[in-house]
Amino acid sequence: MNDDDRKPTIGDVARLAGVSPMTVSRVINDSANVRPETRAKVEAVITATGYAPDPAARILARAGAGRIGLLYANPSNAYLAEVLAGALSGARAAGLLLMIEPSQAGDPAAERLAVSRLVAGGAQGVIVPPPLGESAATLDAIARAGLRAVVLAAPSRSPGIVSLKVDDRAAAREVVEYLIELGHRRIGFIEGRGDQSASAERRQGAEQAVASIPGASLSVVEGDFTYRSGLEAARRLLAGTPRPTAIFASNDDMASGALAAVHGAGLDAPGDVSVAGFDDTYIAANSWPTLTTVRQPAADMAHEAAIRLARPGAEPEPIRHHLITRDSTGPVPH
Fold it and tell me: How is domain 1-52 classified at the architecture level of CATH?
């Protein structure tokens, strides 16, 4: 810590301890889901820095104020579970109350109503996961209500809105470069929803990786981030001649659908077709075979969003992705 008047934050503790803010929160709240050696490390940093959860936020929460909201309209239950866990953890760490409100993406009236319900419930800020973070109706309603906002996995559309996102283009490029290292040259790509910038950025990253390798090609089929769309998109890719030797889907739900399509065609993954996804939700570790994917730390992002709403002057920390290689990818078949 610098010798100035700034109080240590949960982000400072996490950085010094080499863990995520969510792990620090678990230690503070005496969660059992922390390894003893990690707990000891975090507690040592807390002692050294003098960090303490914001007492003002806790007082507000006890007084019935200090409320933040979470809007959701994401078709992926796996992704939503990650976001919800992180938002709850972050709100608890900041001493805030979390209100959860469903919305309906693509229906401006329903989106405005969802925001108005949060306002009526006393919310002072809102966490906005995709796809609502890029919806004009939702963002306009938030601005009109004067709410602080943090959008997840989307760029900020306003100077007053904080954005927490990974570098989607770099992450997708890394996945395809890994597939190329395994010898794959015919790669299928299942794109996400067109109304989310992450979809275009992931496609661009995949295209950049392929463009640098002579003889490599990328076949693109559109999906909508659902299992069903991944299944149908992968069937179309596998019906091509020659078929791809690897399929990269823009999220784990679609990748899980792609695995089902591979198996349904009487093929082996990764023996005949490698499959990779994006997000590293619980689906990835529980698929058969387990899914190679990009870890987008959705829970940590949502946790950090709650902290940012409690302390609006704090600078958001960079969100890093990680390529997680598992059993669904392997060398190109010969």
Answer: Orthogonal Bundle (1.10)
